[in-house]
């Protein structure tokens, strides 16, 4: 299963940074503080750092896996390791996971719009428009998808800058005393925290589309670092701005935080922020759809142009079926758990498996 | 793409005369075609030409005397005697037709003789080289292209006095046979780009070619895109500048505009003036123009979105101004904005269609009378009037006319989206444009470079223009064969203080 | 291309379903201030103040008017509803809460508890965080429907009044700060107290809350200044006192920058030691003339330090007696104590040994000596 990707559809190694970062920052960042501080209190921000470190390790494993495999991506790798039929089945499961991952992000963003801006906006209509927009990116191929990942980084930058406003209300003593919680609590929070960092699993599917993969290593780790930094600052700002008790009652802390931001020409930044957030969510959806269709193309040997509409229709219908918050939450936690085991258990497992396999095969 | 790759029958079949006789029969129908017998004792010959295409004075003064004098027996003698450089002796009716239509004189020994001597006596009638009208600048050269391709080429060649400056001529138009020149500097321009342009020019199959603007639409990468993919300019200095960057320029006979390609979107917002100003000011004006574009596209959609759905965004001090200005308006904000935008577009269109002097009057009547009256009549709010007028003004800061038109018109989809889904709608609409721009190419090169793909070195002359000392390399996206303008390291060697 | 052609009609199908309820700005009435008066038996008289921008100055076809009148509606209902449904029946156009900037409670309701309202304000995404809550000494209905000298709408008048005072005299207390203390541990919320006097509204003090119940107040002006000094760094605000309680030796100083630090020892013990250290830079604006200015300034600052320390400690003692913690001593203790227990702290707080130390540095005495 050799895949030849023409240079025209490949992207430069620098873009790995944006690909990784854009995929990790999605809807999770809007409200992750509540979950980690429920476990580790005001020390929960340390879990962000430990999670950041853990992602570096997983990424390192991914690079090792992909470099050693001949096919270049996860699809080829699994078929190589587990044989044609088991490999095919596993690949199919992975694609289902990624598809649900996209679904979670899409549905949660729609949920945010419904709660915060337009309660009467129908899930079907909104889902349709966003998927239509995603379609126009995905049919442009990987370069276009990378383009939106990169642009989302630029468009998202102002959102990062407005963190300055809540700092005017900061109580820095909220972070003290440092390391009051036990390391065990922080580790537990780390497990929860990883759920927000999961997006970079897609890396294993677009890896062959990166020019000079050796050089991209540096940028990929930079991407993880950028993500960790983003989450860390977000967490710290939330912890100094909100009291712990207040945080417990806040579902989307970042959005609540934007309420305090006001400019002479407009107030209530959350409305603008959620709008700009579309461009932060969009790369998640686009890259996810792209990766799923790419994988499906390799699995089913069908043209990607045919798969894209199919996948979009599946997404559209399943998106519309989730009608309330509880269902969305269930979906969210389910996908997060699956994602956690995929990245932190399954990937190391196949790494070891590959090592053993290569050792066994070598002498023969 | 109906003019490309179409191998059907050539529609110009009947336009080609098979024999000289047929040709002359055709030509004689026109009243401005002159043909007469010129008789001498020893011989006689027939002279024919279009008196409207030929410099008649020149014919009588410099040509006919040579035919009268000397011992001329046949056409060869005439050819030897005439002090004209471009003389062709031919029997091909096709050539004769082509030449006579360009203003050549045909000499035959007998009427409808198949052997013809053609030589040039073209009367050049056209405008004098004038000041630029569209891309005016306070400082810098004041020459603009005219309708004659030779004069235009002259203007460019003066500025690029090197043998490596190549001009390739192609004829486009099955009937019109318009001369189209492709200009580039060998050794700087990318070979692939040159070939692409050449290939695209050759692929064009259309009956005529009136102007460069038509050509740019036929050659574009995506003909459905609202964004122009070639910069058209009337300034020879700008053309020379782009040639030195490694771009390719296309001149069309009869068009006072040159096309330069490939281009990126930011270039459409840089006026050539920017290169004449100190870099701080040039950069400031560029940023101003980009802000103007954003304002022009987004201001009235934002107004509609905020006033229709997101009243929470309005600061409390602004509430009173906005509400009281809108209180008497019978229409929803969307209709109000649409009416005003259409009114402004009407004014612009009327101003463009009318002669200059009346156009100014229309501007005053429309701008002041209709604007104030509509506010007083309570049809539009004065806040919106200010915004729409400022947005219209902002859209005219775009130096390129075609891009300016695009900017003015793309606000309408935004307006509709704002009415449907508020600011989310604006973001979605913006998303669709981003998707389109990401996919768009100019001559196969990405259109929104240097933003994506990110090329740091090309940012030196994009949103801002850095000083010439920093412009050591030619734009990367052109993939020039010789990327360096000068040796940056040597230029950077500087003395210490007091040395 | 085929997909595109297919998409268009589908998109057109979706436009009607995607249509949203518009809230065109002149077709709604923006509630800017809400007042709640306790009637008894969990019944509340809600009053909303709605500025009427459309009425004033309409002579030139909707030119901006300089003044706005305020309409107010009142309705009795059960507690815990921002705007009772009954209210909508009285309004010509739908009432919208998105621009509320002041919410008032009368003293009875505040004593009864405002938890229902807090829950609502925290929950509804349409409510901003920069709005002000306040307790009214008297009836909020009267306050909101009253006529004032200011030509502005009463809601804007109220908002500006509180904003201005917060800058100089009162600690910061917008909705966010209220929620912060209300939900947080170790700090109790506070609100300004307003009073209508004639054709003016004035701030008469700070209301102290314990779990959403109004329990006591700090009177204006000197006490609030000291309270602000102890609770946050700020600049501005004047402090007035009499040297040696002598009415002829009246002295007024302007704060040009103060800082406060807390140090806590034995945070988990039955009587924690808390030291509040205030550093203040000041300008003397008014003082009787003396021959030796340097010595005199020293004397003033010493006397003032003593005065503030005394009053501040008295204030804290009062808080301890009432078991309210508006200064956030609990939160400060938590940040300096490992293994802090909120439940135990509640018992320890009244016994805490709180010391106030003030350092005043007089920078200048104006342009004369």
TrEMBL record, chain A:
One of its GO terms (cellular component) is membrane. Its main location: membrane. It is a multi-pass membrane protein. The keyword Transport applies. GO terms for biological process: spore germination. It is found in: Membrane. Signal peptide: none annotated. The chain crosses the membrane at residues 12-32, 44-66, 86-110, 116-138, 145-165, 185-207, 219-242, 271-293, 305-322, 334-358. Keywords: Germination, Membrane, Transmembrane, Transmembrane helix, Transport. It comes from Scopulibacillus darangshiensis. This is Spore germination protein (Amino acid permease). The keyword Transmembrane applies. It comes from the Bacteria. The lineage of its organism: Bacteria, Bacillati, Bacillota, Bacilli, Bacillales. Belongs to the amino acid-polyamine-organocation (APC) superfamily. Spore germination protein (SGP) (TC 2.A.3.9) family.
Automatic annotation (TrEMBL), chain B:
Residues 478-499 are annotated as: Disordered. Keywords: Membrane, Transmembrane, Transmembrane helix. Residues 487-499 have a biased composition (Basic and acidic residues). InterPro entries: Spore_Ger, UPF0353/GerABKA_families. GO terms for cellular component: membrane. It comes from the Bacteria. The chain crosses the membrane at residues 287-309, 329-347, 359-377, 383-402, 414-438. GO terms for biological process: spore germination. Belongs to the GerABKA family. This is GerA spore germination protein. It comes from Scopulibacillus darangshiensis.
TrEMBL record, chain C:
It comes from the Bacteria. This is Spore germination protein. It is a lipid-anchor. Residues 204-366 form the Spore germination GerAC-like C-terminal domain. Residues 1-21 form the signal peptide. It comes from Scopulibacillus darangshiensis. Gene3D superfamilies: Nutrient germinant receptor protein C, domain 3. Its main location: membrane. Keywords: Germination, Lipoprotein, Membrane, Palmitate, Signal.
């Amino acid at each position: 299963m050799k895949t030849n990707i023409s240079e025209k559809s490949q992207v430069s190694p620098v873009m790995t940074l944006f690909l990784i970062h854009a995929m990790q920052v999605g809807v999770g960042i809007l409200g992750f503080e509540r979950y980690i501080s429920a476990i580790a209190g005001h020390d929960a921000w340390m879990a962000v750092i430990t999670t950041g470190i853990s992602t570096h390790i997983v990424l390192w494993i991914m690079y090792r896996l992909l470099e050693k495999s001949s096919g270049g991506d996860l699809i080829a790798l699994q078929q190589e390791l587990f044989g044609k039929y088991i490999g095919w089945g596993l690949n199919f499961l992975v694609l289902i996971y990624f598809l649900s991952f996209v679904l979670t992000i899409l549905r949660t963003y729609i949920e945010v719009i419904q709660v915060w801006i337009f309660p009467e906006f129908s899930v079907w209509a909104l889902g349709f428009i966003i998927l239509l927009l995603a379609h126009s990116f995905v049919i442009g191929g990987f370069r276009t998808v990378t383009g939106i990942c990169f642009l989302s980084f630029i468009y998202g930058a102002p959102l990062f800058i407005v963190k300055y406003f809540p700092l005017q209300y900061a109580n820095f003593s909220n972070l003290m005393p440092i390391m009051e919680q036990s390391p065990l609590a922080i580790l537990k929070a780390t497990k929860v925290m990883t759920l927000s960092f999961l997006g970079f699993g897609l890396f294993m599917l677009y890896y062959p589309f990166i020019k000079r993969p050796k050089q991209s290593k540096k940028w990929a780790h930079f991407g993880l670092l950028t993500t960790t930094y983003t989450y860390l600052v977000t967490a710290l700002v939330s912890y100094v701005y909100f009291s712990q008790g207040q945080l417990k009652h806040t579902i989307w802390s970042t959005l609540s935080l934007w309420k305090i931001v006001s400019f002479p020409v407009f107030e209530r930044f959350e409305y603008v922020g959620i709008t700009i957030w579309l461009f932060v969510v969009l790369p998640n959806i686009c890259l996810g759809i792209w990766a799923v269709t790419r994988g499906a193309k390799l699995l089913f040997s069908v043209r990607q142009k045919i798969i894209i509409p199919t996948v979009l229709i599946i997404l559209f219908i399943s998106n519309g079926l989730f009608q309330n918050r509880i269902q969305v939450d269930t979906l969210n936690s389910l996908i997060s758990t699956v994602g956690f085991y995929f990245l932190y258990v399954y990937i190391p497992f196949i790494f070891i498996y590959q090592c053993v396999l290569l050792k066994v095969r070598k002498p023969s | 793409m109906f003019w490309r790759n179409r191998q059907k029958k050539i529609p110009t079949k009947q336009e080609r005369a098979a024999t000289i006789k047929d040709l002359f029969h055709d030509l004689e129908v026109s009243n401005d075609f002159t043909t007469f017998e010129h008789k001498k004792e020893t011989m006689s010959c027939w002279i024919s030409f279009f008196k409207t295409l030929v410099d008649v004075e020149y014919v009588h003064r410099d040509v006919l005397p040579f035919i009268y004098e000397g011992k001329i027996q046949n056409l060869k003698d005439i050819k030897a005697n005439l002090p004209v450089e471009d003389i062709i002796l031919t029997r091909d009716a096709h050539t004769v037709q082509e030449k006579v239509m360009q203003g050549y004189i045909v000499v035959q020994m007998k009427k409808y003789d198949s052997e013809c001597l053609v030589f040039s006596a073209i009367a050049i009638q056209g405008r004098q080289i004038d000041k630029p009208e569209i891309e005016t600048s306070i400082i810098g050269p004041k020459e603009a292209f005219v309708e004659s391709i030779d004069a235009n080429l002259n203007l460019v060649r003066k500025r690029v006095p090197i043998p490596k400056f190549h001009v390739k001529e192609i004829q486009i138009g099955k009937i019109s046979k318009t001369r189209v020149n492709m200009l580039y500097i060998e050794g700087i321009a990318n070979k692939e780009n040159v070939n692409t342009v050449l290939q695209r020019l050759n692929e064009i199959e259309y009956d005529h070619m009136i102007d460069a603007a038509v050509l740019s639409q036929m050659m574009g990468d995506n003909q459905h895109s609202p964004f122009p993919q070639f910069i058209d300019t009337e300034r020879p200095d700008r053309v020379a500048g782009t040639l030195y960057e490694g771009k390719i320029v296309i001149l069309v006979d009869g068009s006072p505009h040159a096309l330069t390609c490939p281009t990126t979107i930011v270039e459409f917002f840089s006026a050539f003036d920017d290169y004449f100003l100190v870099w701080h000011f040039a950069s400031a004006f560029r940023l101003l123009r980009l802000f103007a574009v954003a304002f022009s596209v987004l201001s009235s959609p934002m107004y509609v979105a905020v006033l229709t759905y997101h009243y929470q965004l309005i600061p409390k001090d602004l509430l009173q101004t906005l509400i009281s200005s809108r209180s008497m308006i019978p229409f929803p904000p969307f209709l109000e904005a649409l009416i005003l935008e259409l009114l402004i577009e009407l004014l612009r269109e009327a101003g463009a269609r009318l002669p200059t002097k009346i156009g100014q009057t229309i501007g005053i009547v429309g701008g002041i009378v209709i604007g104030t009256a509509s506010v007083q009549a309570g049809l539009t709010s004065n806040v919106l009037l200010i915004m729409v007028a400022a947005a219209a003004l902002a859209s005219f800061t775009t130096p390129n006319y075609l891009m300016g038109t695009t900017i003015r018109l793309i606000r309408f989809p935004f307006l509709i989206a704002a009415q449907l889904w508020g600011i989310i709608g604006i973001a979605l609409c913006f998303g669709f444009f981003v998707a389109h721009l990401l996919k768009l190419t100019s001559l196969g090169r990405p259109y929104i470079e240097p933003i994506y793909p990110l090329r740091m070195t090309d940012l030196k002359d994009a949103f801002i223009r850095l000083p010439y000392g920093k412009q050591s390399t030619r734009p990367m996206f052109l993939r020039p064969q010789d990327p360096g303008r000068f040796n940056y390291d040597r230029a950077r060697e500087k003395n210490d203080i007091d040395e | 291309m085929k997909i595109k052609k297919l998409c268009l009609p589908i998109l057109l199908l979706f436009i009607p379903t995607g249509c949203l309820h518009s809230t065109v700005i002149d077709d709604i009435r923006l509630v800017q201030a809400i007042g709640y008066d306790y009637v008894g038996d969990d019944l509340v008289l809600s009053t909303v103040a709605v500025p009427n921008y459309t009425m004033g100055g309409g002579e030139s076809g909707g030119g901006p008017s300089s003044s706005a009148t305020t309409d107010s509606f009142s309705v009795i209902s059960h507690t815990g509803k921002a705007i009772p449904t009954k209210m909508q029946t009285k309004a010509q156009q739908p009432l919208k809460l998105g621009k509320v900037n002041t919410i008032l409670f009368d003293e009875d309701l505040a004593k009864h508890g405002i938890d229902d309202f807090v829950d609502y304000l925290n929950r509804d995404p349409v409510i901003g965080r920069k709005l002000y809550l306040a307790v009214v000494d008297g009836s909020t209905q009267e306050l909101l429907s009253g006529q004032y000298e200011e030509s502005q709408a009463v809601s804007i008048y109220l908002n500006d009044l509180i904003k201005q005072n917060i800058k100089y005299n009162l600690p910061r207390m917008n909705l966010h700060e209220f929620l912060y203390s209300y939900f947080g541990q170790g700090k109790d919320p506070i609100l300004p107290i307003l009073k209508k006097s004639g054709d003016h509204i004035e701030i008469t003090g700070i209301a102290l809350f314990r779990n959403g119940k109004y329990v006591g107040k700090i009177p204006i002006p000197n006490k609030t200044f000291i309270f602000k000094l102890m609770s946050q760094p700020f600049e501005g605000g004047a402090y007035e006192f009499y040297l040696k309680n002598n009415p002829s030796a009246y002295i007024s100083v302007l704060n040009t920058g103060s800082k406060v630090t807390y140090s806590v020892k034995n945070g988990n013990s039955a009587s924690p030691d808390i030291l509040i250290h205030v550093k203040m830079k000041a300008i003397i604006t008014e003082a009787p003339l003396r021959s030796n200015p340097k010595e005199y300034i020293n004397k003033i600052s010493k006397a003032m330090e003593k005065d503030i320390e005394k009053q501040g400690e008295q204030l804290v003692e009062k808080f301890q007696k009432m078991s309210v913690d508006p200064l956030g001593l609990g939160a400060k203790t938590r940040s300096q104590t490992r293994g802090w227990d909120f439940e135990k702290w509640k018992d320890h707080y009244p016994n805490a040994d709180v010391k106030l130390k003030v350092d005043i540095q007089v920078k200048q005495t104006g342009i004369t000596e």
